[in-house]
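FAQ
Q: What does a multi-component entry look like?
A: The components come first, one per line:
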Amino acid sequence: MLRALWYHLISPIRRSSPLPDNLIEIRDVDYSRGARSIFSNLNMTIAEGQVTAIMGPSGTGKTTLLQLITRQLRPDAGQVIVAGDDIAEFNISELYQMRQRFGMLFQNGALLTDMSVFENVAFPLREHTDLSESLIRNVVLMKLHAVGLRGAAYMMPSELSGGMARRVALARAIVMDPAVLIYDEPFVGLDPISMGVIATLIRQLNDALDITSIVVSHDVHEIGEVADYSYVIADGLVAAEGRPEDLKNQSSELVRQFMLGLADGPVAFHYDAPDYATQLLGEQPDQ
Amino acid sequence: MFRDIWQTFTGFLHSFGAMCLFFLRLLQYTPSVLVKRFPLVAYQVYNAGALSLVVIMISGLFVGGVLGLLAYSSLEQFNAEDTTGIFAGLGLIKGIGPVITALLFAGRAGTALTSEIGLMKATDQLSAMEMMAVDPLRYVAVPRFLGGVVALPLLTAIFTAIGLLGAHLVAVEQLGVDVGSYWQQLQNILDMEDVSEGISKSVVFGIIASLVAVWEGYNSKPTAEGVGRATTRTVVVTSIAVLFFNYMITAIYL
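Then the predicted structure of the entire assembly, as C-alpha cells:
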C-alpha cells in the first residue's frame, strides 16, 4: 500500500511522477463532534509543491481539518487520500511512516518543555535515524540557522518569546526534510515583525525544499502574501477557493465579509439571543 | 434516580475497562521500552524515587516513633515492653510501611506525574510527538509507569528501615527498652512470609499508584481545570485502591 506513497513522497523527480499532481485529496468527508456537524460532504485538493491556505472564520473546523489530514482524527464518512492511498486503511506502522514525511507546526509551537532548543530539534533525528552525534549536531545547527535561531540553540523553551518558539518548532518540523509541511495558525499572537519572518520562512522553505505546504490561518493579509491557492471554509463546506487576490472579488457575501474583515454580515456580530429589550426588562433571571 | 445510579455504574465500568486496556498496553510495550529507552526509565526512577526520598525518610522516622510510643504504652500494662520491637517491626513491615509509603508516593510523585503528563497534553506536546511518529505511550507513559513501579518498593524498604530506627530511638533511647530485646524479639518472630507480604504489597501498590497517575494524566481534559481535577483524582483513586488492596493482600496472607 505504501509503495505509491513512498514513490511519490521520496522520489527526487517528483515533477515527472506519473501520479496525479494532487498530493492530498479530501473526498466527501463528513465529520461531527457530538451532535454538531463540523464538515458535511467536504471536498478539497492540495496540489503538490504549492502553498495552500485554508482560511475561514473561527470555529469552522480548520484545525480539525488538519487533524483529519494527518489522521489524528478519522472522518465519519468519506476519504482522505494522500499520494493515492486512503490513510484510513493505514496500520499504525504505515501511519507513522507517513508522518515521518510530514512536518507540523502547532499553534503554540508544542516544544517539549524539558528539553533545550537543540534537543527539541534533534528529537526526531534521535528517534528515527542512526546518525552520529556530530552529524546530528551539524544538521540541527543548520536547521536552526535556517530559521535564524542558531544562537538560541542551548536556551530552554521557557526562555523563548512566542515568535522564537514558533521558529524553533519550524526548525524541528523541517529537520527530517519532510515532503509536506503543515502550519496550524502560524501567525496567531505574533508581533508584526515575527509575522513577517514566519510568512517569509513559509514561502522560502516551500520553494527551497521543494515541498508542499498547508497553512491554516485566518490572517487574510499575511496568508495572501505567501499562498499560491486558498480555500475558505464555512458551514462545513468550501465556501470559496482560488488565488488569494481572486477571493477578494468573490460575489459570496460570506467570503467578502471574511476577506474584508467586516464586523457584520452572514456571520452575525451577535450570537443568537432573545430580544434585547425583552431580556433586559423581563422578570425571569437569565439562565 | 435509578437511571442516574445505573449511568454512574456503567460509567465506572467503562472507565475501569479502559484503564485495564491501558494497563495491558503499558505491559505490552514494557519489554521494548526497557531495551530501547532504558535511560528514560532510569531517569524516571530517579524522578519518582530519589526526589521523594526526603519526605519518605522524615515520615518514616515519625511514624516509627509513634509506633514505638504506642507499642510501649500498650505493652507496658502487661509488663511486655520488651516486645515493643515485634509490634513496631511487624506493623511497619507488613502493613503501615507499604501503605503510608504508597499514600505519600501518590501525594508527591503521583500528582507530579499526572500534572506533568496532563500539561504535556494541554500544550500539544503529546500530539506533537504523534506527528513526529513517536508514540507518546512508549516515550512518556511507559517510562514513567516503570519508574514508579521500581521506585515504590525501594522507597517502602527505606521507609520501613527508617521507621524501625524511629521506633528504636523512642523505645530504646527514650523509654529504656533493652536494645538486645528490641532487635532480638523482632528477629525471632519475623519470617520470610512477613517480609514477602510487605514486598508483595509494595509491588502491587507501586503498580496501582503509577498506573493511576499515568492514566489520569494521559486522559485528563487539556485545560487548567481538567489537569487540576485529574491530579486530585490521582490521590483519591490511589488512596482508596491502596487501602482496598492492603486489606485483600493481608487477608490472603493470613
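Q: Is there any commentary attached?
A: Sometimes. For this entry: Residues 148 and 167 of chain A are 8 Å apart (CA to CA).
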